[in-house]
Amino acid sequence: MTSSFIMTDFIAYCGLDCEQCEARLATINNDDRLREKVARQWSELNHVEITPEMINCTGCRMAGAKTPFCESMCPIRLCAKGRGYATCGSCAETDGCKKLAMVTANNIEALNRLKQK
Question: Model's pTM, two decimal places?
Answer without folding.
Answer: 0.84
